[in-house]
Amino acid sequence: MKNKRPILDSTQIDISLHRLALELHEEHGDFSNTAIIGLQPRGINLAKSIHGLLQEISGNEDIKFGELDSTFYRDDFRRGDKVLIPNSIELPFSIEGMNVILVDDVLYTGRSVRSALNALTDFGRPNRTELLVLIDRKYNRELPIQPDYTGEAVDTRTKDRVLVELDGNDPIVWIVTEEKK
Amino acid sequence: MSTLSTKHLLGIEQLTRADIELIFETADNFKTIINRPIKKVPSLRDVTIANIFFENSTRTRVSFELAEKRLSADTVNFSSSSSSVSKGETLIDTVNNILSMKVDMVVMRHPAPGAAMFLAEHVDAQVVNAGDGTHEHPTQALLDAYSMREKFGSLEGKNVIIVGDILHSRVALSNILCLRKLGAKVKVCGPPTLIPKYIEELGVEVEYDLDKALQWCDVANMLRIQLERQDIKYFPSLREYQMQYGLTTNRLERIGKEITIMHPGPINRGVEISSEVADSTNSIILEQVENGVAVRMAVLYLLAGQANVDE
């Protein structure tokens, strides 16, 4: 029996996004040397929202925005039961010497962030790389990777799933758990 | 569908349209990768690939090797001229000896039609056909179709002519199968002696007059006369062939329309195509070569990725 319940509603998500944007603004000023890079596939919508808010708050309408896919850098290629199909990469600027903020919806084992860091290395050497996530699933990490900016930290079990839906009119974050028998 | 329907690439015949489209979409990603400063990804770093060439090749071999290296695979190269094949070893023995050194995939070119399929049935490795005699050359057809797709967006309803030695050409057969699966219309053109009987069964039309074929087409794929496979004389002289079927600036000016020119290489300049045409702005011959690496990366990546996926 599966149990699906919301952990963040649209108002809470809105508040979190604004807080994250303000934190970023505090740290990075007018973003003249900082880029927002969403991780494919599920970090893109979040990255776009954050990017939009930052342009409003900072007054800089040219904040650099990219989309990074790390499929070719994953450590589970040829190990799982499915073929890993890549997504597109959009990085129309050099990240050499820039500050980069990687954005993903959920931080879980840390493995996809690890692969993203490797993928990023092949585009240049950023000055500093940080990680922003909307949901931090604590206690599930398999690598020493922690977020710099967190929307909401949640306690989950390994079997649980967290679903972030930002594309519709009514953004929501769900947690799907297995009911105990 | 996000896996290929096959574990080997033996020919276009075994691929579905969805397979071909998946290869193209994956190749789009690799094309961006091979155009950036660091042209390499680590995907196949635990995969070893043997390139086994029992026939001469420049483009295909270099292209496969670059594709493998840009995927971080380990590669070994082997050509029949410098091997035990000349001492009488059989194909299966040769390949099994190589496989016992822990090789995961085999890219093979062989003069015998069906050699790739034979190998796939008898050895425990994934096989990629890099040309088997006069039968198929699937990666060439894929990169040709990919190059057309890049130019036109879609191949649906496009008119393509394949000109030259259709009888001996594996490129022609693979191209016909691939283009038909993608919805293009195909005519073959060449001297009657070099057009195989019953080729209409493949859903293509035959046109013996190059001018008429050019009037009809959007793309002209010019093939080389494969003298090394011709045991008898199929036409009186190369000069006569050039007069009848050579693509020249004069002929194109007479036709007076924009035609995309392709050639799988190697080119015999002045025979099937003149230098001016081969180097003209309508020629996408060098794009074909560039796309070859991206398409082969996609094929190797997708095949390797499903090595452990149960059917």
What would your notes on this structure say?
The complex is a heterodimer of chains A (181) and B (311). Chain A has one domain (2-72, 87-178): Rossmann fold, CATH 3.40.50. In chain A, the strands form two sheets. A five-stranded parallel beta sheet of chain A has the order 3-2-4-5-6. A three-stranded antiparallel beta sheet of chain A has the order 1-8-7. In chain A, helix 1 packs across helix 2 (44-58). With 181 residues, chain A is of the alpha/beta class. The N and C termini of chain A lie close together (8 Å). In chain A, 39% of the residues are buried. Chain A has helices at residues 10-28, 44-58, 111-121; strands at 2-8, 34-39, 64-68, 99-107, 128-138, 149-155, 161-165, 172-178. Chain A has three helices and eight strands. Chain B is an alpha/beta fold and 311 residues long. In chain B, the strands form two sheets. In chain B, strands 7-6-5-8-9 form a five-stranded parallel beta sheet. A four-stranded parallel beta sheet of chain B has the order 2-1-3-4, sandwiched between helices. The longest helix of chain B has 21 residues, at 285-305. The A-B interface holds A 69, 71-73, 77-79, 81-89, 118, 122-124 and B 2-4, 22, 25-26, 28-29, 32-33, 36-38, 40-43, 46-47, 301-302, 304-310.
Instruction: Estimate the mean pLDDT confidence of chain B.
Output: 92
The dominant shape of chain B is: globular
Percent of sequence in beta strands of chain A:
25-35%
Q: Number of helix segments of chain B?
A: 11
Low-confidence stretches of chain A: none
The biggest beta sheet of chain A reads:
5 strands, parallel
The number of E-state strands of chain B comes to: 9
Tally the beta strands of chain A.
Answer: 8
CATH class of chain A: Alpha Beta
Q: Rg of chain B, please?
A: 19 Å
Task: Name the biggest interface.
Answer: A-B, 20 and 28 residues
Strand arrangement, largest sheet of chain B? 7-6-5-8-9
Could you name the ranges of chain B where pLDDT drops below 50 across 5 or more consecutive residues? none
- In what order do the strands lie side by side in the largest sheet of chain A? 3-2-4-5-6
User: How would you classify the helix and strand content of chain B by structural class?
Assistant: alpha/beta
- Helical content of chain A, roughly? 10-25%
